[in-house]
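Researcher: Please translate sequence to C-alpha cells.
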Amino acid sequence: MLKRIITTLLMVLAFAISAQAADLKMDCNAIYGATNFHSQGAKLFADKVAEYSSGSVQITVHPGGSLGFKGPELLKTVKDGTLPMSDILMGVVSGSDQVFGISSMPLLAKDYTEAKKLYAAAKPYYEKACRRWNQKMLYAAPWPPSGLFTKKQLKTIADLEGLKTRTYDKNGAELLRAVGASPMSLPWGELYSALQTGLVDSVLTSAVSGKDGKFWENLKYFSKINYAFPLNMLVINQDYWDALNPKQQEAMLKAAAEVEAYQWEQSAKSNDESLKILAEKGIIISEPSKEISEMLSNDAKLMLENTLKGSKKAFKSAIKAYEK
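Model: Translation complete:
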C-alpha cells in the first residue's frame, strides 16, 4: 500500500514538472472496443484537446480496457492516480457512491429528451461525487436505451420468470428479480461463451452492445423496454487536472463540451444503426406487451420509492430536481 502511494506521488510530481514543458502526455483508459462510439468519443476528445492546446497536451486513448483496468475499481484507480484518465460506466461504480446509479434507475427517463433533463438535474451531484473521489468529470453521454435480448419471445409476465439474465449493474438486477428473473453479474468478455453454454439465456443491454456482441448468433429477440439510458463519463484525476496550466484546462473544457454534445447525438444515431443491423441479421425486434410494460412500470416506481427512503441527500436532491 505504501509503495503504491509513493509511486502515485512520484507520478503526479513528474506530471506537474512536465506541465511546465511544451508537451505534456497522459494515457486515457477506455473500457470498450475501438469501434464503440464511447471509445471513439474519447479519441475525438483527445484530438480536440491536442488541437485546442496547440499540441501541448497529448492524450493517448487505450480502448478495450487494454491497460488492464475495468469495473467497480475504476473510481479508486483514478483517485489514486494509477490512471490519469478513464471512461467509466456510472452504474458500475454506484456501490462506491449512490448518486452514480441515478441514470440507470429503471424507467426514470423514457426517451432521450427525458434522459437529458435527468442528466442536467443530476450533473451537479455527479461533479461533487467525482470531487469526493479526487477527480473531475469532463463530460458524460448516454448509452442507447437498454432492452432485453432473449432466446424466446416475451409475450406475457410468465415469460420473464426464470430468465437467466446478464445485467450491467445492481439497479438492473433488482428490477429483474422483482419481475421473477434470475439476474447475474458477468464480465462482458465472458458473456459470449456464457450464452453458448446456457449459463445465461438473456441480456439486459443496448442495441449497440447487442450488435457489438453479435447476439444474433445465440439469441433471437430484442424487446425495446427502454429500461434506462445509463451514462458513461470521462474523468481525470484531480491532481493531474490541477497540474495543467489555465490555457490547457480551458482547452480540455472546450473539447469536453463539444464532445459531450456530439456524443449525445451519436448515441441516438448508433442506436438506429444498430437496430437496423440487428434486424438484418435476423433479430426480431418488438415493443413490450401492455401487460409487461405495466408490470415493469409499477415495479420501477416501487423500486424508486424504496430507494429514496434509504438514500442519501445528494440522491434525493437530484431526483427532486428532475421531478420539478
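Researcher: Any highlights?
Model: The radius of gyration is 20 Å.
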